[in-house]
Design goal:
The radius of gyration is 17 Å and the shape is globular. The protein has a four-stranded antiparallel sheet, sandwiched between helices. The chain is built from seven helices and four strands. By secondary structure, it is an alpha+beta fold. Bound molecules: flavin mononucleotide.
Length: about 190
């Protein structure tokens, strides 16, 4: 890929971590829950992930997403307590992908609010996960939390809704590959 950062990243990170082929990025993505606390994630990295995120498609190109970036220990700790997943604070950076459903419901009614807002922001989430792998980083999609507790930790108000919490860092765990149901079981060809 490589389209999301400057080419300088290739030299900075060395050949072994140069941008990957798309198929390799997809195959290598895993949910990582242990991070190397000594390796920093730069603002340039975060920016590249967010630049990638906003290339995702959205219904009517409304782009209802909002991103909150947490770096400070206190902010990360408050969030980790809110979501009840302490391990998430070990990541140098946490990105919370939120959505403002108002423009979606204004244009598309109930379907916009209930479905498109979540689909739009989820497309951004997956793009961040893949862009992270492309840069040699790792993350995990965290969705199990109480919306109101996360709003409070982030100091954002309804109807802004947190969709995913994404700790980002360098992986400190051995790659393991959770199994997938066979394609035949989940696909119908008509
Ligand atoms: C919508 C959603 C919510 C998730 N919530 C959590 C979570 O709260 N905590 C967690 O550790 N992993 C969470 N995950 C990660 C899944 O457990 C993981 O994607 C799944 O086990 C497959 O592993 P893989 O991502 O390495 O392929 C979530 C994933 C998705 C898509």
């Amino acid at each position: 890929m490589g389209a999301y950062g400057s080419g300088a990243g290739i030299e900075r990170r060395g050949l072994t971590e140069a941008f990957m082929e798309f198929s390799e990025v997809v195959a290598k993505r895993r949910s990582v829950r242990h991070f190397n606390t000594r390796r920093e994630v730069t603002d340039e990295d975060v920016r590249a992930l967010l630049e990638a995120a906003i290339t995702a498609p959205t219904a009517g190109n409304i782009q209802p997403w909002r991103f909150v970036v947490l770096r400070g220990e206190e902010a990360k700790s408050r969030l980790a307590t809110a979501i009840g997943q302490k391990w998430a604070t070990a990541a140098p950076v946490v990105i919370v992908v939120c959505v403002d459903p108002r423009p979606c419901s204004a244009r598309y009614g109930e379907r916009g609010e209930r479905l498109y807002a979540i689909q739009d922001s989820s497309a951004a989430v997956q793009t961040i996960l893949l862009a992270a792998v492309d840069r040699g980083l790792a993350s995990c999609w965290i969705g199990a939390f109480d919306d109101e507790a996360v709003r409070e930790a982030l100091d954002v108000a309804r109807p802004i809704t947190p969709v995913a919490v994404l700790p980002v860092g360098y992986s400190a765990e051995a790659a393991r590959k959770p199994s997938r149901r066979p394609l035949e079981e989940v696909t119908t060809w008509l």
